[in-house]
Amino acid sequence: MNSLATPRPNRVESRTIPCWVLGLTLLTLAPISTFSQDAAAPPASAAAAEEPNDKAAKYLDALLKRPSGGYLFDRFYNAWLDTGTIAGLEAYLARRAEAAAAATGEKLMLAYFFAKQGEDARAIEVFEKALADDPKNGEAWLEKAKVEARQLNFEPALASLDRVAATDPKAEIAIEAGKLKGRLLSRSGRGEEALKVWKALAAENAGDEELREDLVELHLAEGLVEEAVTLMEELIAGTADPYLKITRQLRLGDIHQRSGKRDEAVAIYDKSLEAAGRDTWLEKEILAQIEHVFRREDDVAGLKAHFEKRIATDKGRIALMKRHALVLAELGEADAAVAAFSEILKLTPGDRDNREGFIDLLGRLERHEEAAKQMAALAELNPDDAELVAQLAVRRHAAGQAEPARAAVLDYLAKSDGSEYAHLRAARLLEQFKQDDAASEVYGKLIAAFPDSVAAKEARAVFLHRVGKKEEAMAIWKGIAAEGSGQDALRAARALSGRGEREAAHEILKSRAEEFGNDFVFLGQLCNEAVAAEKHAEALPWAEKRLALAGSPADLNDAIRQVVSVLDRLEKTAARRDELAAKPDRPLAETCLLAEMLERDGQYEAAEKTLAPALEAGEILAITQQVRLFKSRDEWERAAETQRRLIDLPEGRKSANVQELAQLFRRALKFDEALQWIEEWKKLSPGATQPWIEQSGVLVETNKTE
Predict the structure, then answer these.
(1) What is the pLDDT averaged over residues 291-320?
(2) Are 631 and 563 in contact (CB under 8 A)?
């Protein structure tokens, strides 16, 4: 069948994170949570009958030996969902926890489950039962305190943390409990007590520098800036490693900068620059921070003065001199900028990067003739480098040197590897220079060198059409469509369509319809071109065939839109609706089409009734169609409830689906549910920034700006 074809940064470096990320992190005291399935839970008997699969059973055995609500529980949870449901997991854990001979670990597993689900009250209740059996379980007391803190029940949480201390916990548990206790005391308005707790924690772990860094961040999160500065200064004073010392100095400078103390921040950055190696990433970072301090106040003149002061005391630092020259150019001091960069060239006579930087500066200052002269000299020094010759052509064109620019392009082509890319680049440079005759010659060379290349033919056709030789261009596109693959035919049709040649686009696709008539994308373009050519009767069977081929929600939505559009133009929408309504055993795609038509007529109940059997059967296409219909009515809560049914399906638990659910809850003003599902979204897309941005927006809308 035919078808369409650098070293890893240490912990200190990672601390220079955006404040809003830090703030959101500190707001989240619990591990990533997921949620109950009330809207689409299986029957109670089915849920009660679920048992762990082999993978989940292995994690469960490990957890029962050492109960924990961390990553191991998450792995157990995810392994269960490979074959089971959330409701089934709850029933299983509850059955074990409520047994007469239930061990403490079994009760804790249920407590961790409720905590993960965000059912805090139920989690606390089970924690209390488990801790009554095992009051010396410090880790469980800590987890209970986290849940209580999430409920803003600070006093019970503090009491639980006191119980942690009484269990003689391991060092990591004691440290985590101490950090949380200080945070809760601070948020309870007991700042002095919080400071006392953190100071004691630091004293008890005097050699733990990472703990001290954590305490700095905790102080900042609670608004204790001066105390954070003091802690960081003490930490820097005790740091022997030069690299680590500089990175910590940068963090201190960042703290000063964010608190509005520009002079203190700049002084620290200057001190760090003195210790940084030259031509290193650290040097670039420090200079960038210095620039940021001045630019945030729009003080470019102050930045220039500061750079001049630093150049006088830190002679020969090329990166500093470059930034100074660029600032001079920005201020319009062209002669001074050129002179400053010339000093760099004197210090680095054989450095190609600096020569190219100087040429870029000249171009920025619109000294194009001088830039072209400098580039010509650089190209002479590197006679085998074709790229420099191409850049020389651009510089000569900017200087108004038409003939030398053309000569440079041809020289570039001669020195290049003679590839298809090199020919295309040369031709397009000449087009850019408005030298169409020369470009035409190069396109001719391109076709001669690569006669079978579809890309080469397409490029020449585009050029010919642009210069007014439309018949020649159309002949090339028609040849591509007739001889190439389905993708080639599509590209040719789109090229013609984009240039207003809709009739020609329709004809070339129609000529290949027998070969590629089962391809969803091909049929979509064919329908579009038929409609544009006002051949609606021809378009309808193709549109309906495309509907039958739709295999994803996005494809179905697009196919329905296209069918309805064609029917509207033919004034046959009502007749087709009635025909589908009377048709027994409709395919699912036609059922979704009928629901769309009923919805458009305002027959909302009939549309829902039409989709109901497919919804009950768990058909993904029906679920997504129902969600779309609810969204079109602005019934956001019903849309969210239906979307949850999709998430509950084994193949429906995808990042895009969870994102949609979180956003639907947000539109429905169900902010707690939105925040819960954003946490699940983060879990499914751990490297994505969009969930954090969405969470930030929800928090702002609910006045949780802290």
Answers:
(1) 93
(2) no
